[in-house]
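$ run holo --ligand "octanoyl-coenzyme A" --emit C-alpha cells
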Amino acid sequence: SNKKILVELDTSSGVATMKFKSPPVNSLSLDFLTEFCISLEKLENDRACRGLIITSTIPRVFSSGLDIMEMYGKSTEHYAEFWRAVQEMWLRLYGSNMVTVAAINGSSPAGGCLIALSCDYRIMVENPKYVIGLNEAQLGIVAPFWFKDTFVNAVGHRVAERSLQLGLLHSVPEAHQIGLVDEVVPEEKLQDKAVAVVAQWLALPDHARQLTKSMMRKAVLDHMLAHREEDIQNFVNFISKDSIQKSLSMYMEMLKKKKS
Ligand code: CO8
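-- output --
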C-alpha cells in the first residue's frame, strides 16, 4: 500500500503503535498530516484503544519536521490549508485522551520535535548521530507560539528560551539533561521500554489521568483555538514574504550541499 503511516492495534493491551513510513525522511507533508489526523481520530474513537506509541520505520530519522516544499513557492491558499493541517495534528495529539509515548529512533528536528513534545512521555535511542530540537530560528523562521508553549510546558521557560533563540538541535545526552526527552535507551530496548511505560501510565484510572492531563494542557490548547484563524493568517503572511522564501531556499540548498 502507499500508506505513509502503519498503524497496529494490540487488542489485548489496548495499545496502538503508529510507525512513520514516508521516505526519505518522514517529512510532514499535507498528505502525511491528513493521514496522521485520520489515524489519530480513528484510534481516539476506538474504545479498544487507550494507549499510543509513535515511532519510525526509517533508519536514522524519526521525522524531519514540516515538509519545506509545502512552504516554498506555493499559493496563499495552499499555505493556509497546510497550516490548518499542522494545527489539527497538534490539537489532536496534544489534546489526546490516550496515553501517548514517543519512541524516538532517529533525528527529530522542528515539527518532528513538536510531535514528540506533544506526547505524554519521550524515550530516545542513544546514538551520537541523532539530534532533536526546535531549530526554526536556524532556518530564519520563528516557531509559532503554540510550539513554544508546548516546549515550555515540557522543559520550563529558561531552557526553552535559550534553545529556541539559538535554534538548537540537541544531542541525545543533552536532550536528556534538559528534560526534552525523559529517558534514553539502546535501540534494541526501545520497543519494550515504550510498552512498559504505556502500561505504567494506563494502570491509573482513565478518568483521573485524562482530567489531570487536560488540566495541565487546557490553557495552551484553548489559547491556540482562540487564535487559530489569526495564526493561519500570520503563517501565510510570514511564509509568503520574499525574504522568508529566500531563507527557505538557501536552507534547502544547504541541506543538499551537505551531502556531496
Ligand atoms: N522537508 C523537505 N525535504 C526535506 C526535509 C524537510 N523538512 N528534510 C530533509 N529533506 C530532504 C533533503 O533535502 C534531501 O533531499 P534530496 O535527496 O533531494 O537532496 C532528503 O530529504 C534527505 O535528507 P538528508 O540527506 O539531509 O538526510 P539525512 O539522513 O542526512 O538527515 C535530517 C536527515 C537530520 C532529518 C536532515 O535531513 C535535516 O536536518 N533536515 C532538515 C530538518 C529541518 O530543519 N526541518 C525543519 C522544517 S520547519 C518545521 O518543521 C517547523 C516550521 C514552523 C513554521 C513556522 C513559520 C512561521
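-- notes --
The chain has one domain: 5-190.
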